[in-house]
Amino acid sequence: MQDDTVEDIEAADETPRNDQPLLFPDLGPRKVVVDFSGGHLSNDGGALLLRMVDNSLGMSRMVASCFEDRRDQRFTEHSTQHLIAQRIFGRALGYEDLNDHHDLRRDPLFAAAVGKTDPLGGDRLRGKDRGRALAGASSLNRLELGNRKFTRAHKIRCNSEKLERCLLKLGVNCLDRHSRERILDFDATDAPLHGKQEGRHFHGYYGNYCYTLTHQVFGFKPRNSSQT
Fold first, then answer.
1. CB-based contact 51:113 (threshold 8 Å)
2. Using one digit for the tens of pLDDT, what is the confidence trace for 116-172?
3. Predicted confidence (pLDDT) at residue 176 exceeds the cutoff of 80
4. 10 Å Cβ neighbour count for 137?
5. Which of 77, 100, 120, 167 has its CA 20 to 30 A from that of 113?
6. Closest listed residue to residue 26, CA positions, set 106, 109, 84, 112
7. What single string gives the DSSP state of each residue in 52-100?
8. 138: Cβ–Cβ under 8 A, 6 or more apart, which residues?
9. Is 226 exposed, middle or buried (CB count within 10 Å of its CB: 0-12, 13-18, 19+)?
10. Residue ranges per domain, the chain?
11. Going by C-beta distance under 8 Å and a sequence separation of 6 or more, which residues neighbour residue 29?
12. Who's near 119: CB < 8 A, 6+ residues apart?
């Protein structure tokens, strides 16, 4: 039996490569192309898929419309919609803590998903911020803590009634309009805390300091389904 040559073995061990680029919706005047040639790398390629879903549903745009922004727009680099999208996409990708955005704000792919026209952050006003296209944890924190507060430090305020109607509309739009029965399932879970965050409490059931989150899940039964 003829022995395989070294070249044959190396050729057999090579993993087939797909050199075809992946095309995504444009980012303003820029083309969004994903390939495997190196350059600026990211671990969160799924962020671009989230962007496509958000563009289809209009979720970040609709949620942002529920906020009143009193900042001086001459010095505002992160719109309310960008802040909302950054927070939503971050949580969807598993980055629940605001501290995670210290690194995420440097990720050009994540910035492209949020909608930044310069995902490399070269257009930032201050030199020390260049290279960080997205908002930091402090800006996102002010967004989350600005509800119902009226001080010079709280300039982004949420209309909770409008937000409630918005979330209900988004949820209903995802349901099958021809469904026979619609189900709302409410459940609670814990979000463990590792510091002295505002509003934290010790929960005896979970045995730690946490926030208790309530999840609401929509479901439906098609009209042609059998009764259970």
1. yes
2. 989 889 988 888 899 999 999 999 988 888 776 667 778 898 998 999 999 889 888
3. no
4. 15
5. 167
6. 112
7. HHHHHHTHHHHHHTTEEE-S-GGG--S-HHHHHHHHHHHHHTT--SGGG
8. none
9. exposed
10. 22-161, 176-222
11. 117
12. 27, 108, 109, 111, 112, 133
Q: Which two tokens stand for residue 218?
A: 């929509």
CA distance 147 to 65: 14
Q: Which residue, chain included where needed, has tokens 């399932």?
A: 185
Tell me if the pTM is above 0.70: yes
| Displacement of CA 52 from its chain's centroid (Å) | 12
Q: How far apart are CA 45 and CA 202, in angstroms?
A: 37
- What's the CA gap between 226 and 228, in Å, rounded? 6
Nearest 5°: the CA angle 210, 216, 219 is 150
How many helices and strands (H and E) does the chain possess?
A: 8, 7
Residue type, 53: V
**Encoded tokens for 172:** 């209903």
What does the block give as tokens for 58? 């209009």
